[in-house]
Amino acid sequence: MRIPMPRALALALIPVLAISVSGCAKRSAKSDLPYVARDVSTLYTAARARLDSHQYKLAAALFDEVERQHPYSIWARRAQLMSAFSYYLNQDYSESIASAQRFLAVHPGNRDAPYAYYLIGLSYYEQIADVTRDQKITQQALDSLGELTRRYPNTKYASDARLKIDLVRDHLAGKEMEIGRFYQSRGQWLAASMRFRAVVDQYQTTTHAPEALLRLTESYLALGLPTEANKAAAVLGANYPGSDWYKRAYALMQDNKDKLAKVPSPAS
Question: Residue by residue, what is the 3-state secondary structure of 138-201?
């Protein structure tokens, strides 16, 4: 799911990454670069130059070299997160996630931890596929963005994450609707109603809620459950009284008044 803002926001926020003065644990770094011993200043400057010239893959490799060759320098920790950022810009999302997760594993209390969580969330978010495909990545985006907002609710990263969470939830609801409509088209009304019920119960604040209530009305009528259909239509009317979805549900219930009239009362 590509939205114009994430890259610009990430670029604007990267200057706030702190230069740490404490040591950094070693790792067996994977790099496409041959090992050539260089001083830390030369390596970091070269990496930053590649980043500024949009050579993101090479920049990431050079930042990795900073950590590999100078793991205890004051630049190693910053280079580790800059590597994750460079991978993100190059759309190497799995590498970005792995680098950011490694940073968090080694430095969980670092002041730049919120940014690492943010990069993980963005990397999953950018990979969200349309609703006709598997939504595992979408759920991972929701989980990682949610973790960021829970851990660091007052950061600028959490503010952006909350906006994306709303979009991700709407996307997941759309997937439920897509499956529900498929079941409806095959006359599998019970399976369809379960999908629409999930949208109403779990994603009631999304844009798909009114359609889900209409589809529930249709499914319940097809299942011979006019009372449940009437309840769904009533909820739709109470919450979305002027919508086309309610107009359709109302017309549907009017066409099925005879079924409703035959429903016995609780006292009968």
Answer: HHHHHHHHHHHHHHCCCCHHHHHHHHHHHHHHHHHHHHHHHHHHHHHHCCCHHHHHHHHHHHHH
Q: Which CATH class is domain 5-171?
A: mainly alpha
Residue 93 vs residues 1, 66, 88, 96, 258: alpha-carbon distances, Å: 13, 21, 6, 5, 57
* 191-220: average pLDDT: 97
In CATH, the architecture of 186-260 is Alpha Horseshoe (1.25)
pLDDT at 5 over 50: no
Please say whether the dihedral angle defined by the alpha carbons of residues 30, 31, 35 and 41, taken in this order, is positive or negative. negative
**What mean pLDDT comes out for the span 29-57?**
79
Residue 207 has pLDDT above 80, yes or no: yes
